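In this supplementary section we document a worked example of the pipeline. Step one takes a protein sequence of length 226 as its only input; no multiple sequence alignment statistics are reported here. Step two produces a three-dimensional model, which step three serialises into structure tokens for compact storage. The input and output of this example are shown verbatim.
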Amino acid sequence: MTQENKDIQPQAEPHIVKSHDIHIDNDYADWIADIKSRYRSAQVKAAVKVNAEKLLFNWQLGRDLVQKKAEERWGAGVVEQVSLDLNREFPNSTNFSVRYLWYMKQWYLFYAENMEKLKQLVSVMLPEDDYDNKIKQITDEEKLKQSVSEFPLPFACVPWGHHVRIVQHSETIEEALFYVGYTIREGISRDILTRVMKDDIYKKQGTVPNNFSQHLTPQLAQMARY
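The serialised model returned by step three reads:
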């Protein structure tokens, strides 16, 4: 075989393991391929649902620490005590370290300081099409709404680690929601999100010279610049 022939190899056909007493044809191969595709889709949807439930739990626990005024009521070491109690009950979980609990409180508190403003901005600033497509993967949407009315449903489409970095970086709710929406729209990893925030694209957005304000209403001009 020449070197050229060695370099040009036919594409391998899908590998199917045969059992006894079976006749495998193209219809069977197509069926198996469809099953695999559906299973992968189910895995993705399951992961999204699990993420949504975990985020709701984190939001509620952060809310509890804030609304119960836990440190004033039970002492300055209450977060450490909650961590000890939960780790004792759930020894295989990695979600109840003291730092993790502080992140939950920080996350909730960042937005809760102006909850009405949060509700208004969520409906305006997040990409509706991307939000709708991804939120449909969460079948318990009504459950999320009923469980805690102030929990913004688009938050369920963003991984927990992204949320932590966003509130640590952002100075305002507007900036935080910009990066939440960016994450949903682009589907970026945490490392890419960190680089995007380091580049400060929120403050750079809309700085390209334009005459939108001369021809559009203030709200439409803002959307156009975005």
